[in-house]
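[09:14] KT: can someone run the structure on this one? pasting the chain below
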Amino acid sequence: PVPKADVAKLFGDSQWGRLLRTNLDTASVDLSQQPAVEAFLTKAAAAGATAFDLRQVIARMNGQPQQQLQALAQKHGLVAEVPVLRASLDKMVALANGYLRSQYLQVGDNTREFLKAVGSSRNLTEMTSFVQTLSRNAEDVIAREAQRLNIAAPKLDYDFNAIDAYLKQTITSVRVEYNAELAKFVREAVAAGVPVAMLQRALASLNNNTILATALKSANIYVAGIQLPTIKYDLAATESWVRSGLINFQSVVPSGTQLTDFCKACMDQGMSPTHVYNFATYSLTSGRQRASSYANGVPLASLPPVPIDVDAVCQYWQGRLGANWKPEMTAYVKSALPKALENPSFALYSIFNSNASSILTTLQNCSGIPRPAGV
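[09:31] RB: done, structure tokens below
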């Protein structure tokens, strides 16, 4: 004889009852259906299912629970008795929130009510599949489902805290201030349907595009009825970056405000931090003429020279060349170097670590100031 299952020991607060609840929860089943599942398992036991059969079903309810019940029903002629499992609303909201968060959207009360309506017309598998489709183009997916159900589509709430945090990373990298005006534009653009990823590409191009409209066009973004803010670059961050690019000349670049003033003068003429960085570094390594090709079209005559501390240069050469450097050479350098720095072809790098003869000859040629006798 086959012993009958004592189903009372499989439910409630028993080990198997707790496991059933845990597995239903893991499978995202609405836990209010646990009594219906237990009632079905009781009918299965009455139809001949053994305790072993029931324990196997309970143990496997954490994966494809509907199929587990269907298989047991077919074995014991109870197909019409199988409860249709529904999805847990809380689990579906949590799953949807993950997908929407990746699109910088969040589940609000109106979206939760919408998911509740969707779940009432779908079983567990169908509901889970639907929520998974929210991983891309969530607004379009929701609009289609709302049309199918003949209900209003919820207006998705944007997670602007997450959007701001994401875009600030890009903005910081191109040394732009993420001020109130730019944040307002971002909100209006996103609300108008501009994808955050496209906005990020546009803002990233501000390293070369100093006008927001141009940056937006570079990312194929065209907005109407939204005021575009004036881009404001971070002067302090720009100065720090430019100084890092002049590391080989750190001993002769003034530590005061002169480099900040240089950066500001360049940016006031429409240069981005990237333009300023390239113009400064190429000015000292290749000369102002070549450097001007990185100045965003600003005429060379309008561009300030990179600030150099002439006294520091003399001290550097004196310390490096020792006895080969004479006091009269210092006097000549102090008059010739400032003029040479104005020469578009002169590059300080070309003589910075040279011998005294090369230094003096180059300065004479580039400054036009003759060397005194004996120098």
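[09:33] KT: thanks! The radius of gyration is 37 Å.
[09:34] RB: yep, looked fine to me
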